[in-house]
C-alpha cells in the first residue's frame, strides 16, 4: 500500500547517494505502490552552492536537474507495471530569484513536473538544515532586533517564506512543515504568539487550496522522536480538517522506507486515522497540474508493509 512523495538520489543531488534507478528498484522491492521522485530545483547563485558542490556551477545544477527529469520519466515508463512513479520537484526559496526561476521552470517544462513538494531550507539566505552552527548563524543574522528576539524572527521569516511559496505555486505537498526547529525539536510554536499565528495562517491556506501535509519520516533519522511535523502542528492540521501524506525524504536506496516502521505508533499517538496520496488525474488541480489527492482505503495502521524496513 504505502507511498512516499519525496526522495533524492546521489545521481542528481550531491548530498545523497546511489543512482535514481536503484532508489526505484528498492521501492519496488519493499512493495511501495507509489513513489515520488522529487529532486531539488537548481540554485541560481554561486553563493548558494553547498561545500560538497565545489566544482559545480549554477549552470551545471540546471543541467543536472534537466537530466534528472529525463531519467525520472524514463524510469516511470520502464517500471510502470511494478510501481506508480510520480515525477516532481522540491522547491527552494533562498531569494526572490528562486521563485522567479521556479515560475519559468514550470512554464518551460509543463506537464513533465507532475507535482511540487513545497519546502523552505533557508532564512535570510542562510541554510537552516545544514548544521547547528549554520542554523545559529541564520538566527544571528537578524541584526535589527535584540539577541533574545532573533529566534522568533527566524521562525516568523520561515513561515512567511512558506506562505509566499504556497500562495504563488500551491504545492500539492507541504514539505517538512516544521524544519525550522530541526535542531530544537522541543521548541513549541505556541511559546511565540506571532509565530503561532503564522503557523495557523499557513495551515488554513494550505487546506483551502487542497494541499497535503507531508508526514516525513526523515525526522527520526535526525534524532527526533516524531516525524515532521511534530504533535503541536499535527493537532492544528487535524482540528482544521487537513490531510496527511507519507514521505521518506530518502537520500539514496539505503533510506527508502527508512523508519516507516515508526510511523504507525506516531499516527496513532497523534490521532491521524487517514492517509492520503497523490495520483494522476485528467482534471487539472488548483495549480493547473494533473494530480489529485486520494484517500487510502482500509486500515492504514494495521498493514504488514510497515515492518518491511526497520531502523538502520
Ligand atoms: Zn527538504
Ligand atoms: Zn528533500
TrEMBL record:
Catalysis: reaction(s): L-histidinol phosphate + H2O = L-histidinol + phosphate
The protein's name in its UniProt record: Histidinol-phosphatase
Known pathway: Amino-acid biosynthesis; L-histidine biosynthesis; L-histidine from 5-phospho-alpha-D-ribose 1-diphosphate: step 8/9
Biological process, per Gene Ontology: L-histidine biosynthetic process
Organism: Hypholoma sublateritium (strain FD-334 SS-4)
InterPro entries: Histidinol_P_phosphatase_HisJ, PHP_dom, Pol/histidinol_Pase-like
Record keywords, A-Z: Amino-acid biosynthesis, Histidine biosynthesis, Hydrolase
GO molecular function, a single term: histidinol-phosphatase activity
Any one GO cellular component localisation term in the record: cytoplasm
Enzyme Commission number(s): 3.1.3.15
